[in-house]
Amino acid sequence: MKSNIKNFSLMWKQFLRFFLIIVLTAGLIVYFSYKEIKKEYIENLQITLENYAQLIERSLKDYVVENKTEDLNQFAKQLGDELGIRCTIIKKDGKVLGDSDEEPRKMENHSDRPEIIQAFNTGIGTHVRKSETLNKEMIYVAVPLVYQDKILGVIRTSSFIEDIQQNIKDFTKNIIGVTILIILLALIFSIITTESYTKPVRDIAKTANRIKQGNFKARLYIKRSDELGFLANTINEMARELEDNFLSLKEERERLKTIISSMVEALLVIDKDGKIIMANENFSKIFDKKVDDITGKQYWEFIHETDFIKLVNEILDGNQFKTKEIKIGEKCYLTSCSLISGIPETRIIIVMHDISELKRLEEVKTDFVANVAHELKTPLTAIKGFSETLENEVDENHKKFIQIIRANTDRLINIVSDLLALSNLEHRHKKIDRKKFNLEKLIDNSLLIEHKKLDQKNIDVTFEFDECIPKFQGDPFLIEQMMINLIDNAITYTEENGKICIDVSDEENSIVIEIEDNGVGIPEDQLPRIFERFYVVDKSRSRKLGGTGLGLSIVKHIVLSHEGEVRVESQLGEGTKFIITLPRA
Which of 20, 44, 60, 401 is deepest in the core (most CB within 10 A)? Predict the structure, then answer.
């Protein structure tokens, strides 16, 4: 209803503008017409009075010359009655000789009257003023009375202004009447014209309001070729495009809703303030809540896991993507968290994949490997002992077979030992025994353990240690095992007379250990797999030197147990560099 009132007010506003323009224009026309008519009347009256004065001057000239005062006064009254004017005969000295309305002897000297002075000076005098004798506004015209080139006096004719005022008023009334009629016609025309323009505007406003409310099928049927017609066609086109876009958006939303609801993973979308924007059913099931109950609330109201909150805070601190295993209740979830900006504002998308069964299978596998390795260790030790005994008992022809048995037994024992070490690392992933120790001395001990192998291949070792590094806090046994494995790996894949460089530096809150060799290097396509269990780059070399393929996997687990990071850089034929970053506790 309010909308209709506003739309109708547009018509009356436009009508009021027309009304004011028409009335103002008509008023100005009437005003200036009145002024012009009055001016014209006075000018005509002035000409008439001048003509009468000249006529009287010719008729009364003899009376003035002969000084017939009584006859002059009588004649002035007769002329005044016949002509309907006031006639005054004035001597040169200003004395009134005759007047049609008053007795001359009662009238004062007129030598100071403006029209008299002007008549003597210019030949004709005119003036409009209030008569001092009659106390009424009059128009005066004076012409000199000349006899034989001598001015004997002045003939003055005059008439009351109020005599023409009535004529002007009557004429003005007629003008006003006609003007009012024209105004009424103009206003009726303006109403019709305004309505013809405001009705399409109202229709446009109503249709736009219907489109705003979601009725995209609303159309305008205005057949005009002006701007309003163009606007109506534009709105119709806009409505059609909005309808198409809305249908496409609706279909896209339904598809997205179907995809999200059919996801096996749990999905959560929150804003930068932690308010839940969207969640799917699988996410709500984790916390035994309904989607509608959690939407719009802060995620920490029902998610209390420290790892989850820490993961979200890391994203808010500037990380674009982060993945973490998070345990909620009895289940474990691989949680991926990513930051999306500008849709229309910052959003954090969290996807949680249930890996509980995978973790259980991994534990089963780890336990199985550990149990098998443990069970194999005793018989392998026995085989090794008996093979050493047999080696002393058999002849030279059979001794080589015993040596092959011993070599393979040693390899199996090494594999079992590494599997047990790896299994122990996996079980104590977050439960390492931290203590402060001298990292420089530990690396020196590691080099000392590998001293024999280094001498056999005549490999030159360079060790540089930043003196400002304080004592490191971690598990010294694991760190030593890590260094031995990395040094042993560098020795294995470095040719004789090669070079190994070990550099330890301090970077902000971390200690960086770099171990670089100039050995055979690793092909680029194999770099992502070198930390896998039993994966070896050069199988023939590893088999020949008794490698188990577990050394780098053990290194990775040791680094992860210290919350560090390990990466590798390598060029085939030029060498390999392992870079370990360990945070200072």
Answer: 60
Q: List, in sequence order, the alpha helices (H) in 66-105.
A: 69-83
| Nearest of 492, 477, 480 to residue 448 by alpha carbon | 480
**CA-CA distances (angstroms) from residue 426 to 121, 307, 532, 553?**
136, 20, 14, 11
Per-residue pLDDT band for 292 (boundaries 50, 70, 90) equals confident
Q: Which two tokens stand for residue 523?
A: 């092909």
Domain 359-426 has CATH 1.10.10: no
> CA 27, CA 21: separation in Å to the nearest integer?
10
pLDDT digits 0-9 by tens, 169-196? 777 778 788 888 888 887 788 777 777 7
Residue from 397, 398, 402 nearest 386 by CA = 402
Instruction: Extract the tokens encoding 384.
Output: 């090794």
Q: Rounded to whole angstroms, how far apart are CA atoms 384 and 402? A: 10
CATH class of 263-354: alpha beta
- What is the Cα–Cα distance from 264 to 275, expressed in whole angstroms? 23
Distance of CA 178 to the CA centre of its chain: 61
Nearest one of 263, 275, 298 to 345, comparing CA atoms: 275
Q: What are the boundaries of each domain within the chain?
A: 2-167, 223-261, 263-354, 359-426, 432-583
Who wins on pLDDT, 382 or 313? 313
Total-model pTM: 0.45
Q: Where do runs of H (alpha helix) occur along 493-571?
A: 539-545, 551-561
Question: Which tokens sit at 477?
Answer: 């046994």
Helix (H) and strand (E) counts in the chain: 15, 17
Q: Are 2-167 and 263-354 equal in CATH topology?
A: yes
Contact predicate 97/89, CB 8 Å: yes
Question: What architecture is domain 2-167?
Answer: 2-Layer Sandwich (3.30)
Assign 325 to helix, strand or coil: strand
- Strand locations in 79-136, DSSP E? 86-91, 96-99, 125-130
Is 161 within 8 Å of 137 (Cβ atoms)? yes
| DSSP secondary structure string for all residues of 474-505 | E-HHHHHHHHHHHHHHHHHTS-TT-EEEEEEE
Residues making up the chain, counted from first to last: 585
Using left for φ > 0, alpha for ψ between -120 and 50, and beta otherwise, residue 274 falls in left
Q: Is the previous residue joined to 344 through a cis bond, with omega within 30 degrees of 0?
A: yes
Distance CA 327, CA 174 (A): 101
Q: Residue 446, Cα to own-chain centre: how many angstroms?
A: 61
According to DSSP H, which parts of 263-355 are helical? 281-286, 291-294, 306-316
Amino acid identity of residue 37, one-letter, is: I
